[in-house]
Structures are given as structure tokens and as C-alpha cells.
Write a structure and sequence with these properties.
The protein is of the alpha+beta class. The protein has helices at 6-121, 128-147, and strands spanning 150-152, 165-171, 181-186, 189-191, 194-197, 199-204. Strand 4 (189-191) and strand 5 (194-197) form a beta hairpin. The protein starts with 5 loop residues before the first helix and ends with a strand.
Length: 205
Amino acid sequence: MFQVTGDSTKQPDAERMADDAQTTVHEQQREATAGAAEVDTLELAEEDISFDGDEAADSTADPRDAQIEELTQQLLRTRADFDNFRRRTRQEREELTQFATKKLLGDLLPVIDNFDRAMAALDQVDEPQLKTGIEMVHRQLQQLLAQYGVEAMAAEGAAFDPVLHEAVMQESVAGTEPGVVLQVLQTGYTIHGKVLRPAMVKVSV
């Protein structure tokens, strides 16, 4: 007779269970390690992506900012050049208008001189109507000249000024200091305070 013990029949099952348990532990350890590695890989990938994105943003922002600044400076320079051109054009137009006006008014001065001579001659003529008509025309001419800033100089009795006066005669007069305008031979005129025609005068010496 032989006797079958409980240990001989249960030993293989116990060993298999131990092996399965160990295998399960090893698999869990491998899964945990793989998960940690995956997490580290994802974190590194996110860090790389964010770093690359910042570099890309910096590399694309700088050239555009520089281009905007350059275009802004070009616009400012163009605007300044246009303002200068417009100012020069306006100044040249004004100077041209003033020159043309000055020349025309200067050409009219001999006509005014003839009217002045006619007015002086009327004192010896007994023609009231003729005198009145000439005086009206003379007054209109004076008003027209005044509208353009033309004024007659009051030179007689003033100190001689070579800028305002042109001395064509000299005379020594007792009791009169040298350099005084004794007589106006031709009336001088100014336009806006500047000499349009100097006065021809006789000066004391």
C-alpha cells in the first residue's frame, strides 16, 4: 500500500501561483517604468515645442518691426519734403507776384509825376472844371497806389539818407546844417516800407 500525501499533489499549483505572481509584479514594474518614460518624453516634447515657438516668434517679430520703423521714417521724410516743396512753391509764387506788381507800379510812377506837374500848372490856369477833373484822376491814382502799399516819401527838410534819397544837386545855405534835404526834385516812393524809387533831391553842404 502506498500513501499519497497532500504536499505532493498541491506543490505544483503553489509553484505556478508564485510564478504568476512574480510575473505580474515584473509586468507592473515594466508598465510603471514605461509610463514614467512616456511622461518625461511628453514633458520634454512640450518644452521643446514652447522653446521653438518662442524662438520663431522672436525671429519673425524683429524683421517686421524693423520694416515698420523703416517705412514710418520714409513716410515722415516724404511728408517733410512735400511740406518744404509746398512752402517753397508758395514763397516763389508770392515773390513772383510781388515782383510783377512792383514792376507795374514802378512803371506807373512817371505817369504820377506828369500828374503832379499838371496839378502845379493848374494853379496858373483859370479853369475850375478842368482842375477838378485832373484832381479827381490824380486822387484815384493815389488811392490805387495806396491799395498796393505804395506811399510817397516826405523828404524835404529830412536828413539825407543815401538809401532813400538820390542827391543830384548841392547848395550851401546859411543857417542850414550840411546833409539836409533842401528841395525834392522828383518824389520818391516806398512799397510796403521798402524803396520803390528813391527821391531825387538837392542837399545842403
